[in-house]
Design a protein that fits this description.
This protein is mainly alpha-helical. It has one domain (2-86). It is built from 3 helices and no strands. The protein has helices spanning 2-25, 35-54, 64-86. α1 (2-25) runs antiparallel to α3. Belongs to the YggT family. The chain crosses the membrane at residues 7-28, 66-86. Keywords: Membrane, Transmembrane, Transmembrane helix.
């Protein structure tokens, strides 16, 4: 059970790094059109889309990915609490 829990937490951490990489790719022209950029787009956009519907951009700055990363972090912390309660 502990190994599965650790695997889930590592997966959440890797996904957070993927989201950060996807955000940084917006700073470089043409980066999202690369093969790696398309992979990150397919992996990250389904998670980011609900946040973008709720949180409008502030001028040219889109803060929805930041809220998405914070939400993912809070969910992983909640998972840790639930797992510790089960033990």
């Amino acid at each position: 059970m502990d190994a599965i829990f650790n695997l889930i937490l590592i997966g959440v951490q890797i996904y957070s790094f993927m989201l950060i990489g996807y955000i940084f790719m917006s700073w470089f022209p043409g980066a999202r059109e690369s093969q790696f950029g398309q992979f990150l787009s397919k992996a990250c956009e389904p998670y980011l889309e609900p946040f973008r519907k709720v949180i409008p951009p502030l001028g040219m700055i889109d803060i929805s990915p930041i809220v998405a990363i914070i939400t993912l972090h809070l969910a992983s912390n909640g998972l840790i609490v639930v797992f510790n309660m089960l033990l």
